[in-house]
Amino acid sequence: MKEEKQQRIVVKRRGHGGDGHGGGAWKIAYADFMTAMMAFFLVMWLLSSATPKQLQGVAEHFRMPLRVALEGGPKSSLSSSVIPGGGADPMHKAGEVRESAADADHDGDAQALEDMKDRLEELIRESPVFQQFRSQLLVDITTEGLRLQIVDSENRPMFELASASVVPHMRAILRELAPVINGWPNKVTLAGHTDSIVYASGDRAYSNWELSADRANASRRELAAGGLADAKVLRVMGLADSMHLDKADPRNPINRRISIVVLNARTQQRIEQENTGQAGATRSVSGPLAAARPAPPPAAGATVVQAAQVPAPARQ
Q: How much is the pLDDT for 298?
């Protein structure tokens, strides 16, 4: 009988030295989890501080294919829309206009107007000329630009009664403002406003339309005397009582005011294009020379400065 070969069994036992919690693999997983959480909260914080327009841009960016995004976004000439977009030749790729550049210009223009507003408010606070008239000076930002309104007061009117004759303190205000406005690159418009008190003859003769236009032009002359360049003024308008500051009380003296608007880039470009597009249009001036030239057509809801001064009857 053959001797059976005995199989040798070898048992290997691992030692229990080192980490007693299953090794260090869990640390790597935990570090990855914490990194992901930190990135998540960072993204949430950035989204909470973004504007709606920026959020929309981010959403559009992630919706477009990667190749299109790397090339600067979709081209409007490649759109399936029947309305072409951008550039002198909308059917050509080279004619594309990037909206992001236009938005950046608009944001920069808005910030420049805010800086102008801050400097103007500081001047009104610190200038001895303006300190006693602070209640009559209103500064705000509108869709057209930075607006400065000089409002009337029952105890301190800006003009003689029913007249475009500037009183001395109004003259001082305008001439103090002139070099400040002249130092800014933006152009301006001037508008005159009246209250709802009408002349005895109504609108058939000399009315609030002529009065507001004459007062706006008188203000322009005082600004020019203070150093404002003629080329800075794009429009001088008379709006009569069509835009009340106090709608509840149309006869309130604060409705009599002069509005000076330092135009933003978009509004300035639009007005310049409108002025250029008017065939035979000339700037309104006072005096005999203007009477010999055709007057430009008035803007909707406005009366431009009249060429000749008409004797003003007493208002009611």
A: 45
